Amino acid sequence: MANNRDEHQSEDYLFKIVMIGDSAVGKSNLLARFARNEFYSNSKSTIGVEFQTQKMLIDEKEIKAQIWDTAGQERFKAVTSAYYRGAVGALLVYDISRRRTFENIGRWLNELHTHSDMNVVVILVGNKTDLKDAREVDTAEGKAIAEAEGLFFIETSALDSSNVTAAFETVVKEIYHILS
Ligand code: GDP
Ligand code: MG
């Protein structure tokens, strides 16, 4: 279908996506793995960067995903409204080896919906699947809460890279399909 933006396609899409979830669940490492294929085994290394822009190709359209990461202020309600403002997507991350981080999902959803549009696309991400012996949250539990809350769901490991690209692509694709 023709549209009046055909001449400058490369600027057509810029999606703000926020990383949320408890401290130390692996938000910064998921982003580092996705954007730079890097991993930090001892990351107190939240660099002072607010966001990373990653170009992606979806349906032959160039999409820029502007992915925001918290600078370690994820204590409840310490993330400011500026962080959420304008977000069209979110990765809500918990750590499958720490049940407490799973139990806080509801709080994060409330925060997100207080500060951003109700239509924000959310994927629930159970990270650290490489820690098989330390698992405290079953895959089925993650799936169930995601289904109940209308979220996408995926389990990842920033350490061994599994499903990391898929997590980000799922969100970006869905936003693209809603907006196009
Ligand atoms: P954030 O506070 O949510 O940004 O979490 P970080 O990305 O800083 O990660 C916290 C800690 O968990 C660091 O020591 C990471 O190396 C570790 N980590 C992050 N992702 C994974 C993962 O997938 N598997 C394992 N085993 N450790 C991880
Ligand atoms: Mg971090």
TrEMBL record:
Localization: Endomembrane system
Top-rank taxon: Eukaryota
Topology of the protein relative to the lipid bilayer: Lipid-anchor
Record keywords: GTP-binding, Lipoprotein, Membrane, Nucleotide-binding, Prenylation
One cellular component term from this protein's GO annotations in UniProt: endomembrane system
Signal peptide interval: none
GO function term, MF aspect, one: GTPase activity
Record has Nucleotide-binding as a keyword: yes
Main location: membrane
Keyword Acyltransferase: no
Family from the record: Belongs to the small GTPase superfamily. Rab family.
Protein name as catalogued: Ras-related protein RABA5a
Organism: Zingiber officinale (Ginger)
Residues of the full protein shown: 1 to 180 of 222
